Amino acid sequence: MKRGASLGLLVGGLMIASQSLAAPMIVVEARGAGLRPGMRLDSAATIDLKDGERVTLIGADGQAVTLRGTYAGVLTKAGGASQNPRLALAALISTRNDRASKVGAIRSGANAAPLPDPWLIDVSRSGARCIREGQRPIWWRPDGSGETKFSVYPIDRSWRADFVWQKGQTQMAAPDLAKLDGVKTFLIQVPGQDNAISLNVIPADVVDPLVLSSWMLEKACVQQADAYFRQIQSKLDGQGAAPLQASSRDTSEVTTPAPMADAGKASQ
Questions:
Q1: Parallel, antiparallel, or unpaired for β 261-264 and 8-11?
Q2: Model pTM above 0.85
Q3: Per-residue pLDDT tens listing for the chain (268 residues)
């Protein structure tokens, strides 16, 4: 075989060439074609999507590409290659409003308070939130001036757990309750309102900050993406052109209070 000749590997509906690899892309959402969120694909790979199939991918520069069937061709001609991180961040921020509008997150996040950390879960308002695979959610409230009771329900209200925000407290680790396993949508009941919060899990091996913030936008976690943009900008200002590192939250100092009462089945 001649040096430089291409080989091919068919995976589901994807043909990957073994020539020089272009930029890697990460699957955020997929319907069909044997793809799943978190998979890494070569941007030069060709893909064959049947009618009704769809895939959304994010490149190393944070830009997202959505392909819909029927489609046969390369994932992207642009390649999704990483570039100067400042330019990549500016380009990503410039797409923020359009992408948030497409997922219906502009209105719901218009009055959201700025998060001090992108991995906090604001329980003061309804909407989508993103969490790390394998990490316990950290609840957050923007105003810690008073003591406030709140309750957590699954969407079917089959059980209830009651908690108390202490005066001055703004962060609380989600309880280690078996009943929370597998629950993706919660109702957080605070005085006067119920907030429906949907959790989107980001795979633990997705670590690039530009990709993470772009993933948050795709999943309508706009408040968190905005916090990540600020964090990335701050790191760039402090380290020049050095490679960006993903943030990791130390939850060891975040209090996990016992529930006031695990009320079992909620009253109907």
A1: unpaired
A2: no
A3: 333 332 233 333 343 333 344 678 999 999 988 899 999 998 888 889 999 999 999 988 888 889 998 899 888 765 555 568 888 888 888 888 777 666 555 445 557 899 999 999 999 999 999 999 888 889 999 999 999 999 998 888 888 889 999 999 999 998 765 555 666 888 999 888 899 999 899 999 999 999 999 999 999 999 999 999 999 999 888 764 444 455 555 444 466 554 444 555 555 4
